[in-house]
# Entry
Amino acid sequence: MTILPIVLFAVVGAFLIMVLREIAPQVAFLLSLVIAVLLFIVALHQVTGVLAPLEKLAASANVNLVFFSTVLKIIGIAYVVEFGAQIARDAGVGSIASKVELVGKLLIILLALPIVNAVIDAVTHLLP
Amino acid sequence: MGLDLQLLFQIAVIGIAAAILGTLLKQSGRDEIATMVTITSLLLVTAVVVTHISSLFSQIRAVFFTQ
# Structure
């Protein structure tokens, strides 16, 4: 998919939201939600194209598959958290958005702990 | 899936029609029916939105959380 339809979609959506915000604010918010979801799906399709070569690269470099899937999960969490936080911020509840971000950060730290453990193990093996 | 502009126009038309209907009904003194129209339009749009969000989340799960 080229960039032009995406930008056109966003511009038309912004125009419709601008019209709707005066007369039906709730529907305008839902419309912005739909636009965000559709654009996110497009971005996800592009990510799928990036991910397959990356996986091949990781396999050829003998990277542990557990680490690779952990990194993938972290990227996914970041994606979803960003999406949810932006939606909440659009709806005017910044406090909920910051809580969502906090939970996402905690989950990412939780996922990254085994990798940190592996690094520390490697360092202690190097030490005499 | 993809980017369908038709969906955007559908939602916009639903919103505009509900707003116009609501104003007309309110001016003719039927406030409760106007509220019902507003709520129904909101539910209609919400049904569409929830379908798309669920499809987005299932795609995210398929891409990032396959294990």
Observations:
- The mean pLDDT of chain B is 89.
- The radius of gyration of chain B is 17 Å.
